[in-house]
User: Which sequence fits this backbone?
C-alpha cells in the first residue's frame, strides 16, 4: 500500500509550505528581489560610506545641521510622534541641491530609501509609499548619472528601480529598465579594485533579474566569473561571498537552460547539468547556512536526484525539512528510510501539543500507511497482527481529526479522508460501513464513496457492479484516480466494452492520465488496431521515466506502466516482424521491471514475468539467426523459472 506523496509540485496531501528555494529562484521576479537583496545592498553601501558623519562637505556646517535635523524628525516619524513625511522629503530635496561629492549623495540616498520603506509601514499609506519610492528612484538615477563610476550608488540605483516595480510601486519593469540595471551592474563589476568582493554577488543577483527579462545567456556573457571567484577567495572572510557567487552563477545557468524543473524536458536537464559544476563545490563547502542547504536540497529534488535531496534535507532538523527528506526518500525507492522519518515526526514528543499541525497529521498517516507494506511475506500477502499494520497510528489519527475543527487544521480533509478510508480496511464490515455512512458528505469524497462501493461489491453480480462503477464515475467525473481504478476493474473482470468506452468518457470530461492512455492501448490491441496501439504506447513511453539513469527514480505506478508499455510495444513490433526494434523495447522492459522490483533475485511473480519476456527476446534473436544469444536468453529465463514449459521446449529446439 502506498503512502501518499506530499508535494507542492505533485499532489494530494498538500505539501504547500515546501515550495523550495529553487522554484522561487528559477522564476526570479521583481517582487522577491528587494526582499532578498536589501540586507546585502545596505551592508555593501554602509561599507563604502560611513554615514552622515563620514561626509566631507567643506564649509558647510549648515548642511550637516540639516541632516541632523532630518534624522531627529525622522525618528519621531518612525515612532508615530510626527505625521507629515512631506516635510522630510522637502528637507532631503534641499540637501540634495546643496550636496557636493558622491559620499554626500550616497548619504542622502540612504535616507530616501529609509523614508520610502518607513512610509509603507504606516496604515493606509500605499500611495505615500509609492510617491516616496518614486522619489528615491529618481534621486538614485540622478546620482548614477552624476557619479557614473560609484559602485555603491550603482547598487542603490538598481535596487531603487526594482523597488519601484513592487506591488506598492505599481510599475512594470520594461526593457529599458533592464538595460539600465545591466549598465549599473557593469559599474559594480568594473569600477575600483576587483578585491571589492562585497559587490560581486549583488551584481550577479541583478544580472539574474535582467537575464530573466532579456536573455540569461547574455547575462552570463557579461560576467567574468573566474576573476570574481578568485577575488572572493583572496581572504578567508570572503568565503561566504564566494558561496553566494557560486549560487548566483548556478541560478543564471538554470535560467539560461530553461526554468521548468523536470527531467522530462531536454532543456531543463541541460540547465541542471550546466549548473552542477557550481552546485558541487557549494555542496562541499563547510559551514553553509541553512537557507543555502535548503536551496541545494531543492535543486537535487527538483532535478530528480532524490537520494541526495533526502540526505541534504535530513541535515536540516526542522519538521518541514524532515518531511521533505521522507518524501524524497520515498520517491527514491528508499521506503524504509522514509518510514523512519515519518515515524520520527509522528512520535509523541516531537510535535507535542500540536495535533492540528499538518506535518504531524501527514506523518501519522504516512507511517501507518507505509508501515503496513513492510509486513508482507515474500508473495505479497499481509501479515495479520494489528501492531504490524500500525493500526494504532491510524486510530490515533482518525480520532484526532474527528475532534479538530476544520478551520483549525491545515488541509484537514487531505489527511482525514484517506486516513478514514485506510482505517476502515482493517475493521469488520459492519463497523467499517457504519463509520463510512456516518461521515458527513461521504458521497462527496471520491475515496469514501469508492470504499462504500467496495463494501457492497460482494453482494452484486459483475454486471451490476459495472453499472455501479459508471454511477460512481458520473458522481465524480473529473477524478483521475477513480478512472484509473475503473480501468483496472474493467480489465480484471474482462469487461472489455466498458474498458474501451472508458477512455472516451474520460476525454469528454477533460481527464487524462498515463494509466488511461495505457488502457486505451490495450483496447486498441484487442480490436486489432496494432498501429494505433503502438502510437499510443510510444507516446506514453515518452512521458514516463526511463530506467537508464540512476537519478530518474519515481513512484511505483510510473515504473509499472513503463515496463508494461515497453513490453507491449515490443510485442506489437514482434508481431509486425520487426525483431530488432522489438529487442530494444524488450530490454527496456526488463530494465524498468528490475527497477520496480529490485535487482535479481526477484520475487516469485516477478521472476515468472521476467522469464516470459526473456522467452520473447530469445525468439527475436532466433528470427535474426543469432542462436548463441537466443540460447543465453533462454538459460537466463530457465534460471528464473525452471518449471516454465515454453522455456524448456525452446531450449530443446535450439
Assistant:
Amino acid at each position: 500500500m502506498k503512502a501518499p506523496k506530499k508535494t507542492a509540485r505533485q499532489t494530494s496531501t498538500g505539501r504547500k509550505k515546501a515550495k523550495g528555494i529553487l522554484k522561487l529562484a528559477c522564476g526570479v521576479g521583481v517582487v522577491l528581489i528587494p526582499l532578498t537583496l536589501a540586507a546585502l545592498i545596505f551592508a555593501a553601501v554602509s561599507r563604502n560610506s560611513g554615514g552622515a558623519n563620514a561626509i566631507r562637505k567643506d564649509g558647510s556646517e549648515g548642511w550637516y545641521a540639516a541632516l541632523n535635523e532630518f534624522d531627529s524628525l525622522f525618528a519621531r516619524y518612525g515612532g508615530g510622534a510626527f505625521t507629515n513625511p512631506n516635510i522630510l522629503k522637502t528637507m532631503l530635496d534641499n540637501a540634495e541641491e546643496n550636496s557636493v561629492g558622491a559620499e554626500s549623495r550616497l548619504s542622502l540616498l540612504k535616507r530616501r530609501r529609509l523614508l520610502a520603506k518607513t512610509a509603507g509601514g504606516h496604515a493606509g499609506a500605499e500611495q505615500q509609499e509609492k510617491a516616496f519610492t518614486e522619489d528615491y528612484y529618481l534621486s538614485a538615477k540622478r546620482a548614477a548619472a552624476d557619479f557614473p563610476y560609484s559602485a555603491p550608488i550603482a547598487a542603490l540605483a538598481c535596487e531603487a528601480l526594482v523597488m519601484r516595480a513592487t506591488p506598492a510601486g505599481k510599475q512594470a519593469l520594461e526593457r529599458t529598465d533592464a538595460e539600465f540595471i545591466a549598465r549599473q551592474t557593469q559599474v559594480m563589476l568594473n569600477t575600483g579594485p576587483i578585491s571589492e568582493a562585497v559587490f560581486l554577488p549583488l551584481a550577479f543577483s541583478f544580472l539574474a533579474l535582467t537575464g530573466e527579462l532579456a536573455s540569461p545567456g547574455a547575462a552570463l556573457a557579461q560576467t567574468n566569473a573566474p576573476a570574481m571567484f578568485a577575488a572572493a577567495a583572496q581572504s578567508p572572510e570572503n568565503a561566504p561571498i564566494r558561496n553566494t557567487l557560486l549560487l548566483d552563477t548556478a541560478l543564471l545557468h538554470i535560467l539560461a537552460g530553461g526554468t521548468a524543473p523536470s527531467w522530462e524536458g531536454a532543456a531543463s536537464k541541460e540547465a541542471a547539468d550546466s549548473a552542477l559544476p557550481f552546485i558541487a563545490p557549494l555542496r562541499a563547502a563547510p559551514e553553509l547556512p541553512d537557507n543555502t542547504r535548503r536551496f541545494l536540497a531543492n535543486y537535487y529534488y527538483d532535478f530528480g536526484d532524490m537520494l541526495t535531496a533526502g540526505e541534504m534535507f535530513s541535515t536540516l532538523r526542522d519538521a518541514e525539512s524532515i518531511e521533505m527528506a521522507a518524501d524524497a526518500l520515498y520517491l527514491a525507492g528508499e521506503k524504509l528510510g522514509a518510514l523512519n522519518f515519518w515515524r520520527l515526526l509522528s512520535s509523541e514528543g516531537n510535535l507535542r501539543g500540536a495535533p492540528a499541525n499538518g506535518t504531524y497529521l501527514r506523518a501519522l498517516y504516512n507511517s501507518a500507511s507505509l508501515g503496513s507494506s513492510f509486513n508482507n511475506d515474500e508473495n505479497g500477502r499481509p501479515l495479520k497482527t494489528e501492531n504490524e499494520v500500525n493500526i494504532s497510528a491510524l486510530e490515533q489519527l482518525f480520532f484526532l481529526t474527528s475532534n479538530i475543527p476544520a478551520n483549525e487544521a491545515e488541509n484537514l480533509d487531505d489527511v482525514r479522508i484517506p486516513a478514514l478510508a485506510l482505517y476502515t480496511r482493517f475493521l469488520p464490515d459492519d463497523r467499517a460501513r457504519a463509520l463510512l455512512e456516518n461521515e458527513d458528505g461521504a458521497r462527496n469524497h471520491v475515496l469514501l464513496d469508492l470504499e462504500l462501493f467496495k463494501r457492497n461489491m460482494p453482494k452484486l453480480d459483475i454486471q451490476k457492479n459495472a453499472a455501479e462503477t459508471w454511477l460512481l464515475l458520473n458522481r465524480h467525473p473529473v477524478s483521475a484516480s477513480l478512472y484509473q481504478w475503473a480501468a483496472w476493474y474493467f480489465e480484471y473482470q474482462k469487461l472489455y466494452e466498458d474498458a474501451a468506452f472508458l477512455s472516451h468518457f474520460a476525454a469528454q470530461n477533460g481527464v487524462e492520465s498515463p494509466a488511461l492512455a495505457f488502457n486505451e492501448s490495450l483496447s486498441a490491441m484487442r480490436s486489432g488496431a496494432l498501429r494505433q496501439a503502438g502510437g499510443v504506447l510510444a507516446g506514453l513511453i515518452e512521458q514516463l521515466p526511463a530506467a537508464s539513469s540512476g537519478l530518474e527514480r519515481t513512484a511505483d505506478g510510473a515504473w509499472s506502466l513503463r515496463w508494461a508499455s515497453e513490453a507491449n510495444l515490443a510485442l506489437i513490433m514482434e508481431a509486425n516482424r520487426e525483431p530488432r526494434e522489438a529487442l530494444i523495447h524488450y530490454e527496456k522492459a526488463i530494465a524498468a521491471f528490475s527497477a520496480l522490483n529490485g535487482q535479481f533475485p526477484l520475487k516469485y511473480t516477478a521472476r515468472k514475468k521476467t522469464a516470459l519476456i526473456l522467452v520473447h527476446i530469445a525468439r527475436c534473436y532466433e528470427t535474426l539467426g543469432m542462436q548463441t544469444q537466443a540460447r543465453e536468453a533462454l538459460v537466463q529465463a530457465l534460471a528464473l523459472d525452471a518449471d516454465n514449459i515454453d522455456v524448456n521446449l525452446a531450449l530443446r529446439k535450439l
Q: What stands out?
A: The radius of gyration is 32 Å.
